[in-house]
Design goal:
This protein is an alpha/beta fold. The protein folds into 2 domains: 235 residues, 2-Layer Sandwich (Nucleotidyltransferase, domain 5); 63 residues, no CATH class. Strand 2 and strand 3 form a beta hairpin. Helix 4 packs across helix 8 and helix 5 runs parallel beside helix 6.
Length: 307
């Protein structure tokens, strides 16, 4: 690691705010110094995100800890729910130069976002290398409204916690897996993030995402049935591309659900433990939230980011 890690990572979902404090030791091992999960008294209203009620829920959830100056002198990073962004995978000519690629991304934005003003959005993309001799690669596009990102960072600014890095939770989760599981960055693996209303699915090649999908969960849906109907066929359709493990994360995964998904899957499933290779002190071990390690995977992943 090029920079010594002494940081706090915050992750905000619809129902919880989680934070993790990390410190890199002289032997380069990472110690989890402290952590907490604060449920909101009611879920954030994503349909009307930029309102005072949402702001107060976030502010008040960490106000007391911020006043204690626990976060002072720490590098602070934040990840937010990917459901507040727009993500899409699109094909792109691999022979395009930089300006031509930017022009296509602008065209895709106008096509996908239905007349929205691109000046009101942050536009990011991740290029995916081709698997064949095709002239096409793919890119994963991420569009997020500047007002949404500012809404979150301004709350932390008011608490005197300026953000160094911001990202979405799915990519932060990917980073946590890279840290905790060396085998995650070798060959093809899958990352599945279970949320209240969505299953996020990505395929990872040698540690880099090359496919991303979202599947909406209706109130009448059973997670195992949705997994069997929507996710399993994707694995079967990979044909000769060997997938060696599924990494699973989410806020409400219990033993019964793990057993059901494991029985359905032709691929081994690993429930992500973000602290698998960390030093855990007694304070953290005795914390009432420590038994639900999976909640902290995005916060851990974003805390590890140095740029």
């Amino acid at each position: 690691m090029s920079d010594r890690i002494h940081s706090v990572g915050f992750s905000i979902s619809k129902e919880n705010l989680c934070w993790v404090i990390l410190e890199e030791k002289d032997d380069n091992k990472i110690e989890v110094k402290d952590l907490d999960r604060i449920p909101f008294n009611s879920p954030l209203d994503y349909d009307n995100l930029l309102n005072q009620t949402n702001r107060l829920k976030i502010y008040e959830s960490i106000e007391k800890t911020a006043i204690s100056e626990m976060f002072v002198s720490l590098r602070a990073n934040l990840c937010i729910d990917s459901l507040l962004c727009f993500l899409a995978k699109i094909p792109i000519d691999r022979n395009l130069n930089t300006q031509e690629r930017e022009n296509q991304i602008q065209w895709e934005f106008n096509t996908l976002m239905g007349g929205e003003n691109p000046k009101e959005y942050h536009l990011f993309y991740h290029q995916i290398e081709k698997f064949s001799n095709s002239e096409l690669n793919s890119i994963i596009l991420l569009f997020i409204k500047k007002r949404i990102l500012s809404f979150f960072t301004n709350v932390f600014d008011d608490l005197k916690i300026p953000m160094s890095v911001t990202d979405i939770d799915h990519f932060a989760l990917e980073n946590a897996c890279k840290f905790s599981y060396p085998e995650f960055s070798s060959g093809i693996t899958s990352l599945i993030f279970l949320k209240e209303s969505t299953i996020e699915f990505s395929l990872i090649l040698d540690g880099e995402i090359f496919n991303y999908r979202q599947f909406k969960i209706k109130k009448s849906d059973s997670i195992p049935e949705l997994f069997e109907k929507k996710i399993i066929p994707l694995f079967i359709g990979m044909k000769n591309k060997s997938l060696h493990k599924i990494y699973l994360s989410g806020e409400n995964i219990n033993d019964r659900l793990m057993e059901e998904l494991t029985s359905l899957s032709p691929i081994d499933i690993e429930l992500v433990n973000p602290f698998r290779d960390c030093i855990i002190n007694k304070k953290v071990m005795n914390s009432p939230v420590f038994n639900n390690l999976n909640y902290f995977a995005p916060a851990m992943g974003i805390a590890l980011r140095t740029g």
